[in-house]
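Posting this for the archive.
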Amino acid sequence: MVSALARRVDRAYMGSEVVLVGVLKGSVFFLADLARELVTPISIDFVRIESYGRGTSPGRRVRLTKDVEIDLAGRHVLVVEEVVDTGRSVRFLRRHFERKRVRSVRFCVLVDKRGRREEGVIVEFPGFRPTSGFLVGYGMDCAEAGRELPEIYELSVPGKTKTISGGAA
């Protein structure tokens, strides 16, 4: 799946350089795999936002806790996230980067939970779209646990998981 997303990104940015902006902490594994698959020239930076806290339900408020360190003015930005559900973080980050006068801002997301969408946002490069469940592994966590798991798991009963997708290949 990551290879297919990388090919789509390469086609979209053909002839241009793009800044991959990973959303910490969850995007790290996905961003690294995506970056290695891209042919497009890239730079990499990170932001960190807070929306979930330590639970499994997204909060109503999104706040930036770490901003990019490079100047993005006039550059193409591809925000890389591991999961989008309500859409609040996408709306927040799109506005944040537009204020930096970027040339373009698009989103590449491993897991697109459209069924939980509360905001009318666009994800230009969606990965897979599960129908339900809280996912952990491959960078996704539950209260900071499970990020390191090599595959994606759905939490079903506290302390028990089942595999729903192998890695992100």
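The longest strand covers residues 42-50. The longest helix spans residues 2-12.
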